[in-house]
């Protein structure tokens, strides 16, 4: 199988609601050859850490091939398309987690720093052609490698035993693991150029966001925006989600609904006319989307916002 198989129609999307048990926010497991995991192209809406403790594996990420050996690691952010091939006799430690349950406050400095580091590592992976001296993988120092492996094995044991308060212990161990990643990455020779490239591409996404805000009420498509940004759909969608935490469609619909709410509150335009004004092609589509995002129909929202009685 080659990297182009990422276009495989069998592509899967794994969600935390499907892959985690109720109340669970972090899980850790070992994959050993000949057991395989992730050979079909897929993505997930949670973070994933891969760390090779024995043998080797190959990661295909957004059509780029990365060879991993003992001591190499990846942090995969959400919504990044990838697949893996595990070498004979190999062992991988994997940690899946989502941040909202592991950090009590989104303004927490560790949370923000980890997001920055993850972005930097992601760009190091995605834009290697522009990082002429970048390595294909992220390797730990010998000292840190030992600590990482010991910590992840301890997490695996904690998760498998599932004793009293094991979720809390895992949360503390995950924090320690992320801090080790952050410290090692900060000392990585490619960290600074990766950050520079991130800033450059962030500007492109910022320009696209301004364009969307100015044209949201027009027949706007993802292809139009990608063409204007002169970027492939795959890279643009990844960068857009990384920066906004929404897909293009989610962001566009949110703009349209927020604008329609203002019109419902301040004008006497009909619901059909308001839907047209904010970019919806049909009144039923507008009403369905409005109810999905607000829990109310446009008419119900207007009556509640203006103090009118239903009738």
Overall pLDDT, averaged? 80
Nearest-angstrom radius of gyration? 23 Å
How are the strands ordered across the major sheet? 2-9-4-7-10
> Can you tell me the overall shape?
elongated
Structural class: alpha+beta
Main pleated-sheet profile: 5 strands, antiparallel
Order of helices and strands: EHEEEEEEEEHEHHHHHHHHH
Give the strand content.
15-25%
Please explain how this structure is put together.
By secondary structure, the chain is of the alpha+beta class. The protein has 11 helices and 10 strands. The chain has helices at 16-19, 109-126, 142-161, 166-186, 191-215, 222-229, 233-244, 248-266, 271-277, 283-294, 298-306, and strands at residues 12-14, 26-32, 42-44, 47-54, 56-61, 64-69, 72-76, 82-86, 91-97, 138-139. The chain has a 5-stranded antiparallel sheet. A 3-stranded antiparallel sheet has the order 6-5-8, with no helix packed on it. A two-stranded parallel sheet has the order 1-3. The termini are far apart. Mean pLDDT is 80; it is low at 1-7 and 128-136.
């Amino acid at each position: 199988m080659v990297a182009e198989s990422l276009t495989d129609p069998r592509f899967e999307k794994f969600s935390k609601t499907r892959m985690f048990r109720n109340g669970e926010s972090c899980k850790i497991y070992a994959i050993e050859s000949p057991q395989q995991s992730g050979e079909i192209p897929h993505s997930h809406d949670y973070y994933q850490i891969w760390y090779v403790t024995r043998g080797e594996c190959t990661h295909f990420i957004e059509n780029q091939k990365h060879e991993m050996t003992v001591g190499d690691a990846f942090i995969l952010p959400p919504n990044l398309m990838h697949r893996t091939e595990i070498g004979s006799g190999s062992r991988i430690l994997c940690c899946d987690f989502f941040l909202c349950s592991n950090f009590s406050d989104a303004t927490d400095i560790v949370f923000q720093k980890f997001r920055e580091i993850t972005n930097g590592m992601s760009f190091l992976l995605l834009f290697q052609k522009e990082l002429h001296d970048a390595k294909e993988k992220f390797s730990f120092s010998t000292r840190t490698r030992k600590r990482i492996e010991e910590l992840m094995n301890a997490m695996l044991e904690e998760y498998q035993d599932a004793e009293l308060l094991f979720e809390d212990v895992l949360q503390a161990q995950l924090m320690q693991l992320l801090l080790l990643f952050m410290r090692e990455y900060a000392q990585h020779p490619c960290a600074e150029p990766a950050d520079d490239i991130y800033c450059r591409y962030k500007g492109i996404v910022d320009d696209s966001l301004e364009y969307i805000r100015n044209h949201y009420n027009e027949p706007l498509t993802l292809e139009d925006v990608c063409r204007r940004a002169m970027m492939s759909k795959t890279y643009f969608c990844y960068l857009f989600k990384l920066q906004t935490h929404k897909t293009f469609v989610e962001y566009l619909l949110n703009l349209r609904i927020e604008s329609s709410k203002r019109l419902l509150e301040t004008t006497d335009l009909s619901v059909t006319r308001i839907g047209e004004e904010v970019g919806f092609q049909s009144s039923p589509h507008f009403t369905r989307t409005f109810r999905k995002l607000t829990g109310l129909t446009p008419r119900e929202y207007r009556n509640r916002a203006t103090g009118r009685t239903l009738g």
